[in-house]
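Below is how a single chain appears once it has passed through the pipeline. First comes the sequence as given, then the structure the pipeline wrote out for it. We keep one example in the README because the format questions we get most often are answered faster by looking than by reading.
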Amino acid sequence: MSIKLGMEAKLYFCEAGIGGTPVWTELSNVKNVTLNLQTGEADVTTRANHGWKATAATLKEGSIEFEMIWDTEDEGFAAIKDAYFGNLIIGIAVMDGPIAQAGSQGLWADCMITNFSRDEALEEAISVKVTAKPTYSANAPQWKEIA
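Resulting structure:
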C-alpha cells in the first residue's frame, strides 16, 4: 500500500488551458487544497425493486478549493487573480504528486475561478480563498494517470 500525504500533492495551472500539450506551472503558494468530485442522481426506481429506491449516476461535477497567501508578486497568484477578474479560462491540474512523475494522478480541467475571497485575519497573513470549477471548453475534464 502506498500512502500519500497532502504535502506531497501538487496543484498546477496552465493559462492556455488543457488542450494540446499544456505547459504546467506549479501553484506552490497554496495550502488546504480540496478536490470535490460528485455525481448527479436520477431516480430509476421501479416496482421490480421490491420496495428499494434505485439510483443511476448522471452528470459528474467537480470543484477545486484552495487557499493562497495574498502575494501580488507571485506568478501563480497573479494568474488566478487575472483569471477571476477577466472571466478567463485557466487550466488546472490537481495531482497527488509531481505532474511528470510516473504514477501521479489527478483531475485536469479547463476552469473558471468562481470564488476569490480575501481573508484578513488579525494575526495571519492576508490570504485568498479560491474556488475553480470546470467550464465550457473544447476539452472535457479528464482524470489523468501519468505512465
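The first strand starts at residue 10 and ends at 14.

See the next section for the split statistics.
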